């Protein structure tokens, strides 16, 4: 698969050190994180909270290990804060990623988000955007998309648990109301399956808009427990709802086959936020790398 295509395989630092819960992997250094990524056979990374923001320092550390930056998360607050605040923060983020050689910028709307709230039930309290919030989101994303294009970059929208764009219907609406030239989609297997969506349906329906992929697996027994016990997103993560590809319930072969047939080019990023004290990050990185090689040839 993917022969002759510009496809790269990276891994996110969130399995080593968690941005939302700094106590998870608090002792893990930036150097340990990127060294183990390279040791496991990956060639790229997204940006975590321990990564230096000095681009020369970061470039040197990564180049020593044969790594590149694929992208980095941007928290947008288009539905809850003035557009000007979002624009200024986005420009700084865009310029940093452009200097690092990234081609896409991960954007997720955090207005009303409960993903970082430890005690708020994930499914019962999921935010739902009003018509006005949808308008602010769509218009704001168009502005961010234009800003990204100034540097030859794209924004890829990250549908995410605990936010206003989580379900298939919400993803469909976002794609219908946004300009394909300005807004692309990040496809995340784990968030779709955890939400109860048909991840292959979403993949095939929006294939033409997908320009970044997160490979995340789900422990379905934990996902059921989250619903039954009204757990929050952070409680779900601490309980191990996510894992790396090949260790959960998702069969990734059809995912790779569909993307290959569609001519996908860009990054695949393994991502699974887990407690590193329970799920050793290096061990799980090796497991994921071997599984992906076996089923896709990458």
From TrEMBL:
Keywords: Cobalt, Lyase, Manganese. GO terms for molecular function: manganese ion binding; myo-inosose-2 dehydratase activity. InterPro entries: IolE, IolE/MocC, IolE/XylAMocC-like, Xyl_isomerase-like_sf, Xyl_isomerase-like_TIM-brl. It comes from the Bacteria. Residues 38-294 form the Xylose isomerase-like TIM barrel domain. Its cofactor is Co(2+); Mn(2+); glutathione. Pathway: Polyol metabolism; myo-inositol degradation into acetyl-CoA; acetyl-CoA from myo-inositol: step 2/7. It is an enzyme of class 4 (lyase). Gene3D superfamilies: Divalent-metal-dependent TIM barrel enzymes. It catalyses: scyllo-inosose = 3D-3,5/4-trihydroxycyclohexane-1,2-dione + H2O. One of its GO terms (biological process) is inositol catabolic process. Its EC number is 4.2.1.44. PANTHER family: HYDROXYPYRUVATE ISOMERASE, INOSOSE DEHYDRATASE. NCBIfam families: myo_inos_iolE (TIGR04379). Belongs to the IolE/MocC family. This is Inosose dehydratase. It comes from Neobacillus thermocopriae. The gene is iolE.
